[in-house]
Amino acid sequence: MVMDTLIPWQRVRVDGSSMTPTLAPGDFVLVRHGAGVRPGAIVLGRFRALPGVPVLKRAVSPRDGGWLLTSDNARAGSDSRQHGVADVQARAVWIWHRRLGGVRGTRGSAIRRWAGEPARVRPALDL
Description:
Strand content: 35-45%
Radius of gyration: 13 Å
Number of domains: 1
CATH superfamily: Umud Fragment, subunit A
CATH architecture: Ribbon
CATH topology: Umud Fragment, subunit A
CATH class: Mainly Beta
Shape: globular
Order of helices and strands: EEEEEHEEEE
């Protein structure tokens, strides 16, 4: 799914434990809309079966014009096994780990500051 947006960057707050240990509740993620996605990337998406629920998941493989997404912690959430194909809206670029007190790029880069309040996004449907 292609999203038209004036500002390609969005901050989201992790709410749920389906992506632990990579993402924990309270962590912040900076995502970039329109960024290329490849298998293994952490993405912001919406399952076609649940279009009103944004999720943070790991991209597995392209399928039917969308992506199959998975949780890093399958015991704590649901993913494409339950909800099918998802449309990816953005790819994670920076992760701020509250429990570790630091920020890191998804490719290993690091920065020291983070400011502002993010939008709240559930990384899982904890059903």
